[in-house]
Design goal:
The complex is a heterodimer. By secondary structure, chain A is of the alpha/beta class. Chain A is 39% helix and 24% strand. Chain A has a single domain, classed as Rossmann fold, CATH 3.40.50.300. Classes of the chains: A alpha/beta, B alpha/beta.
């Protein structure tokens, strides 16, 4: 991959978020390169969704900055939340058209038509979202994130409600987007998926960044010389962190 | 904003049940209110037992009135069921065939004609407290009118007799034979007789005393005519209305019904519309840079206000088929409804920002609006002064009372001023809009 395409599409520096006395995130920093697929993993409550929400611009960080090339994170980052943010009484095409106009894309109708083709939803364009399966709803959810052709895509557990075939199709789609030069950051509990599709992994626990590197590096680092399965490696890393946290307390 | 407006109207249009309710509701309520106002209330059934002999009349002065004819007029406010005997009347009351029974005794004519003895009617009631109070009120009203009527006739007869005593003439009605001299004529007649009597004579002194008495009696009988006129109604009432309603209660009832409908439709749509964005998880997607929170709140308020305006105007127009409304003032109606709806819309989005679900927002809208509407309708003098001030303060803060006053002024030309209510509503739009903005941010 050329150097241009590996330039940072997103830079996160010292991100922190607290809700009163509860610290959701503390000093999280990383870069997302163009064309890279970056997974954010960790136990429940680690801060994954909070981090993605801050990157997408739906929440404000208590500390730190998110830098995007376009200068406006809401326009440069396409966001697909964990629960599909769609109007169930509108059709697929109506949802896409509405948000295309709100995103002020140049030619809304042609963008909508392109999205319907890219996401394989052409046949369901006039179907109301309420009648779609979970997988198809997620496809519409991702399609909405792509309307403004953003350089960065933030996906919160994109395959959570999908069956294996739908997951496969979704990841083929995401990999195509990455190969076109988009930076993709996603959260997941499915470590097999992470191992298969992610170029890099960030491990979060209690809002702190424990690891940032390739999945294979995590598998070696957690085993203390032994190469573990990725899921076991994640568990070992988190347990080590929990022990250190208890000692500090 | 137009894309959001189009989206919300499309969603509203696809909510078939809601659409039916919004269309059918004003039509149904208009028909109900219209029929309720335009039809005369049902008269209660009352058994009437007339024990007077057939053809019995009441003679007062020169007037003669048939007892049966007078009873028909007397009981025109009730649905009279003629019954021959008292026992049958009581049986009907016990059997709930009638609400009450009125027994007119046989001697009523004689007592009323005497002008001295008081006549008595027997009234027997049955039924629950509400029915009793209704029948009692109507019978009391009828009897009061009858008493007044008889009293006037007795006064007229007495005044006529006094007039004859004062001025003389044919007093056959009073039982005299032939023409009598009047009291007012006696002093002049006696003065001629006195002039022919020697001064200092005993006859002259006696006649002078009779002349003085006749003069005194004539003067006081003249006064008594005026006293008789005021006896029947010693205190009359002269009313002056400084401000407030000048129109019948039925048109005010229409305004109240329309304002309540406007409030419910607007609050529920505004609160529910905003809460729905949260339920669909689209709120975060919208406000992350596509639409400002202010624009979103304004759009929700406008959609709700527009629908409420349409429903309220349809309701008002529908009721207008039954009640006389001045259609030349239709533009004022629309202005009052529009500004009132915007104020309710602003309150609605404040509620929607607070509640995270459509059901919670709907419940909150109901719980808030119903008691506030009732409080606003409580007359100022109906409760203790301290409580009245609290109620006024609460009513001032919420849009219902001002919306009601604005529409009442537009439809019925009632005080307070139309413009003042609109200004108050405009201030409330800004205040609740600001509250919604702060609440939406805090609740994110």
């Amino acid at each position: 991959m050329s150097e241009e395409r590996r330039a940072a599409a997103l830079s996160v520096r010292g991100i922190g978020k607290h809700y009163g006395e509860l610290v959701a995130l503390h000093d999280v920093s990383f870069d997302l390169r163009a064309g890279e697929v970056l997974a954010v993993v960790g136990p429940n409550g680690a801060g994954k969704t909070t981090l993605l929400s801050i990157i997408a611009g739906t929440q404000r960080a208590s500390a730190g900055t998110v830098l995007v090339p376009a200068g406006d994170e809401s326009a440069a980052v396409g966001w697909a939340p964990q629960q599909a943010a769609l109007y169930s009484r509108l059709t697929v095409a109506e949802n896409l058209r509405l948000f295309a106009h709100l995103e002020r894309v140049a030619d809304a109708d042609s963008v909508v038509a392109r999205m319907l083709v890219q996401t394989g939803l052409g046949e369901r364009a006039d179907e109301r979202v309420a009648r779609l399966s979970g997988g198809n709803r997620q496809r519409v959810n991702v399609a909405l994130a792509l309307l403004a052709d953003p350089p960065v895509l933030a996906l919160d557990e994109p395959s959570a409600s999908l069956d294996p075939a739908q997951r496969e199709r979704l990841w083929e789609f995401i990999k195509r987007l990455a190969s076109d030069g988009r930076g993709v950051i996603f959260s997941s509990h499915n470590m097999a998926e992470v191992q298969r599709h992610a170029d890099r992994v960030i491990v979060l626990d209690r809002g702190e960044e424990l690891f940032d590197g390739a999945p294979s590096e995590l598998m070696r680092a957690a085993g203390d010389g032994e190469v573990l399965e990725l899921e076991s490696a994640l568990v070992a890393f988190v347990e080590r962190s929990e022990r250190e946290h208890r000692l500090r307390a | 904003m137009r894309w959001l407006l189009a989206k919300d109207l499309r969603i509203l249009g696809r909510s078939r049940l809601l659409l039916v309710v919004l269309v059918v509701y004003p039509a149904a309520i208009a028909l109900l209110i219209g029929f309720a106002i335009s039809r005369t209330p049902t008269r209660p059934r009352v058994a009437i037992v007339d024990q007077t002999p057939p053809g019995e009349t009441v003679a007062i002065g020169s007037k003669v009135v048939s007892v049966h004819q007078y009873a028909e007029q007397l009981f025109s406010q009730v649905q009279a069921v003629e019954v021959p005997t008292r026992s049958q009347a009581l049986a009907k009351v016990n059997g709930a065939e009638v609400l009450a029974a009125v027994i007119i005794p046989a001697d009523i004519a004689a007592k009323v004609s005497s002008g001295t003895a008081q006549a008595h009617l027997e009234v027997v009631y049955n039924g629950n407290a509400l029915e009793q109070s209704l029948v009692q009120a109507q019978l009391s009203s009828a009897l009061a009118q009858a008493n007044l009527g008889f009293s006037e006739q007795i006064q007229q007869a007495a005044a006529s007799a006094i007039k004859q005593l004062l001025h003389g003439g044919n007093a056959a009605e009073l039982g005299a034979s032939g023409n009598l001299i009047g009291l007012s004529q006696i002093p002049a007649l006696l003065a001629r007789v006195i002039s022919h009597q020697p001064r200092g004579s005993a006859d002259r002194a006696a006649i002078e005393r009779v002349a003085a008495f006749a003069d005194f009696a004539a003067a006081n009988l003249t006064v008594s005519k005026s006293v008789l006129a005021s006896v029947g109604q010693p205190i009359s009432v002269h009313t002056t209305l400084l401000h407030g309603r000048r129109t019948p209660l039925d048109t005010f009832a229409v305004v109240v019904a329309v304002t309540i409908s406007e409030m419910f439709v607007c609050l529920l749509l505004a609160a529910g519309g905003l809460a729905l964005e949260r339920e669909e998880h689209t709120l975060a997607r919208l406000v992350r840079g596509l639409v400002s929170r202010e624009t979103l709140l304004a759009e929700k308020a406008f959609v709700a206000a527009g629908c409420a305006l349409a429903v309220a105007f349809a309701l008002l127009a529908g009721v207008g088929a039954f009640v006389a409304l001045d259609w030349a003032r239709v533009w004022l109606w629309l202005i009052a409804l529009a500004v009132g709806s915007l104020a309710f819309g602003a309150l609605g989005v404040a509620i929607g920002a607070l509640a995270r679900e459509v059901r919670a927002s709907s419940l909150l809208a109901f719980l808030l609006s119903l008691p506030l509407a009732f409080l606003a309708l409580v007359p100022a003098g109906a409760v203790a002064s301290g409580l009245s001030e609290v109620i006024s303060a609460i009513s001032f803060v919420f849009p219902f009372k001002s919306a009601l006053q604005a529409l009442d002024a537009a439809v019925n030309r009632s005080a307070p001023a139309f413009g003042g209510s609109l200004v108050h509503l405009a201030v409330l739009v800004l205040a609740f809009g600001a509250l919604a903005r702060v609440t939406l941010r805090t609740a994110d």
